[in-house]
Structure formats: C-alpha cells, structure tokens
TrEMBL record:
GO CC terms: plasma membrane
Keyword hit for Transcription regulation: no
Protein name per UniProt: MATE family efflux transporter
Similarity comment: Belongs to the multi antimicrobial extrusion (MATE) (TC 2.A.66.1) family.
Gene source species: Mangrovihabitans endophyticus
A GO term for molecular function: xenobiotic transmembrane transporter activity
Location relative to the cell: Cell membrane
Membrane topology reported for the UniProt record: Multi-pass membrane protein
C-alpha cells in the first residue's frame, strides 16, 4: 500500500494540474458571458482529441517501459520514451495543421448558434498550437511512470500549469484579449511542459534517432487504445452536440459538469497510474502474485476514493456551479445534471482503477471491446434518444450513467478471472478473450 501511495500521490498532483487549469480557465471565461462559455465548451471538446492522443501515448508507453524496467533494463525503458517522443511531436504538428483548416466546420457541427461556433473556432485555432507540447509531455509522463520516476513529472507539469493559471486572467481581463487570452495561456502551459519533458529524455537517452521498427511496435500495441479512445471521443462529441441542441444555458451547464467529471476521473486515475507502473513491472519480473495483489488493492482504493468524491460533490451541489458563472439559467440546468454526476462517481472510481491494472498488463484488447460495446450499445443510443424525445440534459447524463455501469460490470468480471496476468518483459499480443 505504501508503494502504491508513493506513486499515486505525485501522479495525483500531475493529473489534477491540467484539469484544474481547465476549471480555472472555464471559470475565467464563464464570467465573460454565455457565448464565450459555450464557445470554450465546444472548443474544449474538440481540443480533447489532442488529449486523447496524449493519453494513448502516455498509457501505451507506461506499460512497455514498466515491463522493461521490471525486467531490469532501464535503458530500454528510456528508449521507449525516445521513440514515443518522436511520435508525439509528429502527431502534434499534424493536429496543428488540421485545426487551422477544420476548426470552423467542426465547431459548426457541434454548436447550433453561429456566434458560438465562430468564437469556438477562433479559440481552437490558437489553442491547438500547444498540441506538440501537450503530446511531448504525455510521452514523457509515460516513460517516467514506467521507470517509477514521479518527482520530475510533478515539477514539470505543476510549474507550467501554475504559470498559465496566473497568465490566463491577466490576458483575458487585464490585457483585454478575452477568449483569445484563454487560448494563448493554454499554448504557453502546453509548450513549457512539453519542452521540459523533451529536455529530460534528451539528457537520459542512450540514443536519440528515431527507430521506425520500435515506433511501429508502439503503434501496433496502441491500436486497441486508439480504437477505445475513439469510442470515448464519439461519446463526448455526441454528448456536447446533443447538449448544444437544448440551448446555450444547457451546453454551458454541460461544460461545467463535464469538466468536473473529467477532473474527478483524472484525479481518481492517480491510483490507476500507480497500478500501470507496479503491475507492468511485476509482470515483467515474472511475479504474477504481486501483480494480482496490486490489482486487488487499487480496486479497493479506487472505490473508496470515488465515494469520497461523491460526498464532496453532493455537499457542494448548490455552490460549485456558481463558481463558474452567475447565469441563473445555467444554474438551473446544472441542477438537472448534478444527481447523475454524484451517483456515478463511486462506480467510476472502480472502473478507472481497473483501467490502470489492465493497461499495465497490456490487456487493452479486452478494454477496447468493452468500451466499444458500452458506447455503441448503451451511451450513443441513449443520448440520441434523449435528443429525439427532448429529454434534456438529464437524458444525456442518463446515457453517461449507462456507459459507466456497463464498463463497471465488465471490468470487475475481467479482474476476477485473472486472465490479464500474462508474465514476461514484453506482451506482443493482446489477450481479449
């Protein structure tokens, strides 16, 4: 338990830093009015696609690096980080170009209000310039977690986001840049953080040139995470699109609740990060008993953490939305969402803990299948039915609840079977039976 805590607590700060900055950003922009708040809801949803790629790189790299580290080959673990960094930078550049071309068409699809779509497109074009830094930071976090180095990621991410949290209100209000100031502050945070991680891998790597074969293996291993991530993105994009059809106050309230959900999820994911590193290292060392022990402990801790979050969120149900906006129409819509948000947190705590166990074990094929089933058979039909029947935000969040519960049942079953605990320094094939 002490080892789990020593990895989870620094990871908690790292994970909380980015969503906390987004919450600060949302609060700052929210006081500019309904349209800027709705614009950052739409723009933030699109930019979350870059976070999706970052999660793919971080999680895939953690599992591979942890197995190498557990097998006693730290140099090979760092080398995984070098290749992941090349992949991250190239992907980030592609995302910058795509954002400049496709921002307005995409925001137009998500926002029914033209003013909101225009404002969101401008924000996305600027904020997307931070994508290379964001992905470099994700790759750096991945290999450092794999070798169980949590101190430097803590310093890098926290320092960059604190800088940007101070810069955001200065640019938005003092400089008079409005929504543009929010986007610039975002770019600053991502670029500083990515640069620090890049410097760290340069200093430690035995070689820096790209190896297409290793990158190719990382892509193959990440295939299932990519498909799984696509299912998540389809859910979040669809949820925002449906919420936007219920009006500007509805999409504003959805943005507040969704960002709080992401914040809670990523904080709960601190235990999962520890699980990725410890489970991967144990399996790489051939110690299946230790891997199963860690899995049991993190599942318990994840569930308890979810209960604590639910109690705090429930107690603050009438206070927290007011921190983001003074608009009473948005407050009324937030009250519709809140019971769903609170009730789902304990289940989410268990799900995210088990995510870490299976990612550390490389059992992402099973995770892919479960997420696709939950998205295609539960979440997406539920929220589009909510739109067709005019059920409002309650219908959207009922879909999220169904999505979470399907994953909860399937992940707990997988954990109990122990089929995920495959021993060895690498796991070249994914067990998905």
């Amino acid at each position: 338990m002490r080892r789990i805590a020593s990895l989870a607590l620094p990871a908690l700060v790292v994970l909380a830093a980015e969503p906390l900055y987004v919450l600060v950003d949302t609060a700052v922009v929210g006081h500019l009015g309904r349209v800027p708040l709705a614009a950052i809801a739409v723009g933030g949803t699109l930019l979350s696609m870059a976070v999706w790629f970052g999660t793919l790189m971080a999680y895939g790299t953690t599992g591979r690096a942890a197995r190498r580290f557990g097998a006693g080959d730290r140099s090979a673990a760092v080398a995984e980080g070098v290749q992941a960094s090349w992949l991250a930078f190239a992907t980030g550049l592609v995302l910058v170009v795509v954002a400049q071309i496709a921002a307005r068409p995409l925001t137009g699809l998500l926002a029914a209000d033209p003013a909101t779509a225009d404002a969101a497109a401008g924000w996305v074009r600027i904020a997307a310039c931070g994508a290379p830094g964001l992905l470099l930071a994700a790759a750096g976090n991945g290999w450092m977690r794999g070798v169980q180095d949590t101190r430097r990621p803590l310093l890098f991410v926290l320092g960059a986001n604190m800088l940007s949290a101070v810069l955001c209100p200065v640019l938005v209000y003092a400089a008079g840049w409005g929504l543009t100031g929010s986007a610039v502050a975002n770019v600053v945070a991502q670029s500083v953080s990515g640069g620090l991680f890049l410097l760290a891998v340069i200093r430690q790597a035995p070689a820096l040139r790209p190896h297409p074969a290793i990158i190719g293996r990382q892509l193959v291993l990440g295939r299932d995470l990519l498909i799984r991530g696509a299912a998540f993105q389809a859910c979040w994009l669809s949820a925002t699109a449906v919420a936007a059809r219920f009006g500007v106050p509805a999409v504003g309230a959805h943005q507040i609740a969704l960002q709080l959900w992401f914040f809670s999820a990523l904080v709960l994911d601190a235990v999962a990060i520890a699980a990725q590193s410890l489970v991967g290292a144990a399996l790489g060392a051939g110690d299946g008993a230790s891997a199963r022990f860690v899995a049991a402990r993190v599942t318990l801790v994840g569930g308890l953490a979810g209960v604590v979050f639910a109690v705090v969120a429930g107690a603050g149900g009438t206070v927290i939305p007011a921190l983001f906006t003074a608009d009473p129409a948005v407050h009324a819509q937030a009250a519709v969402v809140w019971p769903w948000f609170v009730a789902l947190l304990p289940f989410a705590g268990v799900v995210y803990a088990l995510d870490g166990v299976l990612i550390g074990a490389g059992d992402v094929g099973y995770m892919r299948n479960v997420t696709l089933a939950a998205a295609l058979a539960a979440f997406l039909p539920a929220i589009w039915l909510a739109y067709a029947l005019d059920l409002g935000l309650g219908g959207v969040w009922a879909g999220l609840g169904l999505f979470t519960l399907v994953r909860f049942v399937a992940m707990v079953w997988r954990w109990r079977t122990a089929r995920w605990a495959v021993l060895g320094a690498t796991r070249d094939r994914t067990v998905s039976r």
